[in-house]
Amino acid sequence: MTTHSLDTVASTLERLARIGGTADGGVTRVAWSPELFEAYAAVGDELRALGLEVEIDAAGNLLARWQSGSGAAMLVGSHLDTVPSGGRFDGALGVVAAVHAVRLLKEEGFEPSRPIWVAAFMDEEGTRFNAALFGSRAFVGEDVHGLGDRVDAAGTTLADAMAAAGFALADVAQANRIAQIGSYLELHIEQGPVLEAAGLQIGVVTSIVGLRGYRIRLRGEPNHAGTTPMSLRRDALAGAARIVLELRESARSRGSTTANVGKISVEPGGANVVPGLAEFTVDVRAATPEAIGEWERTVDEVVRRVAAEERLDADVEQTFALEPLELEPALVDTVERAAVVVGARATRLPSGAGHDAMVIGRHVPAAMIFVPSRRGVSHSPDEFTEPDDVEVGMRVLAETLRLSLRPE
Ligand SMILES: [Zn+2]
Questions:
Q1: Cα 274 to ligand 1 centroid, rounded to whole Å
Q2: How far is the CA of 254 from the centre of ligand 1 (A)?
Q3: How do residues 17-72 score in pLDDT, each as one tens digit?
Q4: If 0-12 CB within 10 Å is exposed, 13-18 middle and 19+ buried, where does residue 406 land?
Q5: In whole angstroms, what is the distance from residue 393 CA to residue 343 CA?
Q6: What pLDDT is stored for residue 143 in this prediction?
């Protein structure tokens, strides 16, 4: 054993957190930045030291290949980019856990029946160019050329940022390697409070929730707040308030679904004027196509009924649609068995956030492993996962690889 192998996942994460580290204890490694490529170099060195072939592909994904056995590879990945002043665990933990899982398997002389690839996908977060999941989308062969003219806050286009880092948007189709992949596994922090609250160490993710986004406009009549009798008002904000509460009740009564109104504006916006117009967003999420369909009907029904009762005109516009993804049942079972072997306290749960697995998992069987997030905090310097939980997560990842890729 080398001294290197005495490293824990937590100590590697600690080293990585200094690359792009910020004064508030966070990490800033946005897409295509020098800091991100510095992190690639650090992780790439570790993977090379383990005997893997390392490259950065045409879409800026860090890829490492353990060419063992035959057939399509099992890909283990996540991302090393962060939001500005983000946490040190989001994404990075999945990549570092993959490195240590490979190290563990190598040390015990395990010879996988199929190749194992490790990936850090470019720009999962989408924070700089609003081009989230750029790398994994290119990896599965989606056409991402159209994103090239998106600009960051400084006015730099994505195409120019790629060029500055030594990449060409025109070459990005070369990153399509999905045909060489047989399955996908991703470890990630939960970014929610469920595991911690239940005293559990591992979340066996069953699905990634789908989402519908809406912009809703309610039109009533602006009028004098003192002289218009209550019974004659057409108050757009009062109607909006009823809808907000009804959607909340609807989500609460069904469980495992969420509804959120995160943005609202009211016109004309005077303290002594009855609101004539209310415009607000609705974000509803659920884990199955049936539940998403039910949400579509519910949003429509609630808005129409409340608008009619409040004598308002309603306009419902769907602005965003993302289908839920059911993870591969057999691979999910394997993750669950791996958790039993490792002796981890585990439960099944859906993921409320999107991940690279959502993109890759539409093409090949995929599964995800969650570890707890303290107080559910993420995208913040306060993001934290206990070192013990981090280590258990890595061991479940390694055991899943062992169970999936046993030599014949
Ligand atoms: Zn992430």
A1: 43
A2: 27
A3: 999 999 999 999 999 999 999 999 999 999 999 999 999 999 999 999 999 999 99
A4: exposed
A5: 11
A6: 95
Instruction: Find out whether 195 and 339 touch, Cβ atoms under 8 Å.
Output: no
The span from the CA of 266 to the CA of 235, in Å, is 10
Distance 346 CA to ligand 1 centre (A): 21
Q: What is the pLDDT at residue 320?
A: 84
Kindly give the distance from the C-alpha atom of residue 124 to the centroid of ligand 1, in angstroms, as a whole number. Answer: 7
- Tokens at 402, concatenated: 């062992």
For residue 355, the CA-to-ligand 1 centroid distance in Å is 6
- Distance (Å) from CA 77 to ligand 1 centroid: 11
CA 78 to centroid of ligand 1, rounded, Å: 7
Helix axes 92-107, 387-404, angle to 10 degrees: 60
Q: Which of 353, 281, 370 is nearest to 125 (CA)?
A: 353
Question: Contact at 8 Å (CB) between 20 and 82?
Answer: yes
Instruction: State yes or no: pLDDT of 4 exceeds 70.
Output: no
Cis before 268 (ω within 30): yes
Instruction: Please answer whether residues 138 and 169 qualify as being in contact, where contact means their C-beta atoms are separated by less than 8 angstroms.
Output: no
Q: Ligand 1 centre from 48 Cα, in Å?
A: 24
Q: In this structure, are residues 233 and 223 in contact, taking their beta carbons and an 8 Å threshold?
A: yes
With b meaning 16 or more CB within 10 Å and e meaning fewer, what string describes 156-170? bbbbbbbeebebebe
Centroid of ligand 1 to alpha carbon of 293 (angstroms):
27
- Going by the DSSP 8-state scheme, the letter that residue 307 receives in this structure is H
Q: What is the DSSP string of 62-116?
A: EEEEE--SSSSEEEEEE-----TTB-SSTTHHHHHHHHHHHHHHHHTT---SS-E
Asked whether residue 408 carries a pLDDT value surpassing 80, the answer given is no
How far is residue 132 from each of residues 150, 161, 329, 346, 356, measured CA to CA in Å?
12, 15, 27, 30, 9
Span from the CA of 337 to the centroid of ligand 1 (angstroms):
24
